[in-house]
Amino acid sequence: MKVVVKQRTRLFIMLIYVGFLLLINYLAFGQILPMSGEKGLWFYSGLASVLLGNLLVTPFYTKPVDAISYSVVSIIALYSVSNSVSWQWIERIAFNFSLFFFLVVIVFSFITILTKDSTDINMIKFANTFRILSDAFGNQTVIFSVIIGFALIVFHRTEPIEMFLITIAWAITVLIKPDELLIGLFNKIYEIWKTTTGDFNILGEIAAYQMPGIVLIRQKENESLLIGEPVAFQDRKTINVVIPLDEVGRDESLLVRALILDKKIQISNEAIQKIKLIPDQAVVSFKALFDDKNIEIIPELDDFKNLVGIVATETSLENLFFEVIQEKDLEEGRLVEVRIKATPVLYQVIDGLTKEEIVYQKNTYGYAKAKARKIGSWDETEKKFVHTKWFPRIYSPVFLKCIDCYTPEESAVGHFPGTNYTVRIKDVNHLVTHNTAILGILGVGKSMLSIELVERMIANGIKVICIDLTNQYAKELIDFYDEETEKVNEAKLLKIGTDGKSSAERNVEEGGSINQFKVEIKQQMELFLNPETTSMLKIYNPSKFEVWRQDSKPFNGIASMASLTPPEITQIISEAALELAQKQGMTDNARICLVYEEAHSLVPEWNSVVADGDKSATNGSARAILQGRKYGLGCLLITQRTANVTKTILNQCNTVFAMRTFDDTGKDFLSNYIGSDYSCLLSSLQERHAVFFGKASACENPVLIRLNDQQHFRNAFRKEN
After folding, report:
1. Would you say the pTM of this structure is higher than 0.85?
2. pLDDT for 46-81, tens place per residue?
3. What is the mean pLDDT of residues 1-20?
4. Extents of the domains making up the chain
């Protein structure tokens, strides 16, 4: 391994070598200055050129152009002393061999230059092969050693003393290289004595900088850098504190990547005296230099157990990309924190991928790169996130936000997974007047969320009419449901519906039970919606009612009858709600919420209807929702399949809770609301998790939240309400 020394030191070493060669010349020829011509060839074109090349011109690597230069100079030197007329056969062989060797090196070098920019894979292999040959045979040591060998054979072989001394000079200069041996020995002894000075050991040295904020530490063979354990180094009399992140490769020894902490350290006088003993770029233990109180003023040191990465390239105003250092507890939906101009800003992890990069001298390493969306900075007073402008500096530390136990809050509809940061309903009125949709497959918690939202509406003085095919709401909301009164009302509707099957009228529109059913529905709802009525919840199950519509002229008092489908009964309820809301006049606040449970069966899309009448019925319900906002009427829509629900209502839902879903139609539709990043997460969401976005959300951007557990919600909510 070549000893790395400064250029000034190399010049000094070369002068010592030249003095040594002049001494050899004096001993061999009786004069200090080398003779011109044949007897001086060994010095001028041989060893002097070796020293000049090794120490100053090309100490590490010989370029093809340098190899050509050395070979051409050597050929000129050969011809300047050639005397083929008087030479014997041995001299001619030495001359021809040397000349042939230099010409071969020139050919190798020319081929390397001509093929270096080729894109053909075979030509690239040729170029690399001849580059290696050019460097191996065209370096100054080999080229000028051939010259010295030629000189010894042709001009000095008859003089034993000259032969011996010149050979000794060549061996010492080219083979032994005492300068490297002595410098290497000195450095090893120096490091032993240097690193035992003071109360600390040198753990490594700075190998490279990856600005801003990242350094590569070359770890000493017998020392160990602990990941996450702070260390320090001196750079131009400035102390930098760094945290080792990960191992990324090796050259002479192991390379460790470390993060420079952007924090000024107050250093004691005792520490200053220790620092004076540290060589520049040497890495030492942080705790050996500073007191424990210094650790307390650097939050990154205390928080390192939660550090999960560093800011990576491609980070923008809205998206954070960070290189994952620790994967513990990191998953989609979790919050991470990074500072923007000293302000802690939270992002939500939404995606990840694997990457590979070159870090130093062709060392490569693979890593995970995570993507997160900006949420904002937390306002503790308002209990919400506020928008933060700009983006973090590259290589800034990224910390995972985590808690041991979530504490439910009365105003929160959920919280960010793994944290105590809550997500609130900004205004319950907005849930109704601007309509809300809960979308997701069976069994992920849609109805439990809907029941929670209904309870919030009731607490806010909003009357709720549930159109429920599941019979779940009456059971879960029993505390707000007048079961005895509603049983009486339901019995009236059932009797009207059944009796209408034999009620044939000459006027087809008057036959059946549909008209009487509408009247009774309207009367019941009018009483329910009266402000003086204390009841806040009414529930209808359209599948229970057998309502008949006459669809032909009577013959002998008998006419064909058709039973109303759930969408048609839903239309009757929706239009009655609109009419009664209009009677109460315009308002900015919510008065009535229609809950469409299993909405794909109540307000289906046209391509999903069971009967043709369902198309008209769905249009009627949609028209009621479209016109109802200014009168305080809105809806809460719950469905398993987005594709099967009328888009006329769905497009009016300005608040969306998107839960786990698999169908591409649903994800494509939701991507317009919540963005493609979040829509891609929907197929892998856990139960009781949802992407929440819209008018009623306290967050300005889509967020992935863990919804409340029902009992925890009720314990917190009912205590306050």
Report:
1. no
2. 554 555 554 444 444 567 777 787 787 778 777 777
3. 62
4. 7-182, 196-302, 304-402, 428-481+566-720
pLDDT surpasses 70 at 536:
yes
Tell which wins on pLDDT, 141 or 533: 533
pLDDT at 94 over 90: no
- The answer to whether the 196-302 and 428-481+566-720 domains have the same CATH topology is no
691 contacts: CB under 8 Å, gap ≥ 6? 656, 657, 658, 659, 670, 674, 678, 679, 681, 682, 685, 702, 703, 704, 705
**CA distances to 26, 440, 601, 611, 615 from 608, in Å:** 108, 18, 9, 9, 9
Partners of 374 in beta bridges: 347
pLDDT at position 192: 54
Beta bridge partners of 349: 372
The angle that helices 140-155 and 89-115 make with each other, rounded to 10 degrees, is: 170
Contact 619/644 with Cβ under 8 angstroms? no
pLDDT at 2 over 50: no
User: For residues 186 and 158, what is the distance between their CA atoms, to the nearest angstrom?
Assistant: 41
Give the span between the Cα atoms of 702 and 319, in whole angstroms. 13
Q: Which amino acid is at 543?
A: S
**CA end-to-end span of the chain, whole Å?**
78
Confidence band of 182 (pLDDT split at 50, 70, 90): low
Range ranked top by mean pLDDT from 102-111, 480-489, 568-577: 568-577
DSSP letter at 265 equals -
Fold of 428-481+566-720: Rossmann fold (3.40.50)
CATH code, 196-302: 2.40.10.170
C-alpha 62/C-alpha 5 separation (Å) is: 18
Residue reference for tokens 């290289």: 177
Other residues' Cβ atoms within 10 Å of the Cβ of residue 213:
20
* Helices and strands (H and E) in the chain: how many: 24, 25
CATH of domain 304-402: 2.40.30
Q: What H or E segment, with its residue span, contains residue 339?
A: strand 335-340
Instruction: Note the residue count of the chain.
Output: 721
Percent of the chain past pLDDT 70, that is, above it, reads 83
Gap between the Cα atoms of 481 and 537, Å rounded:
6
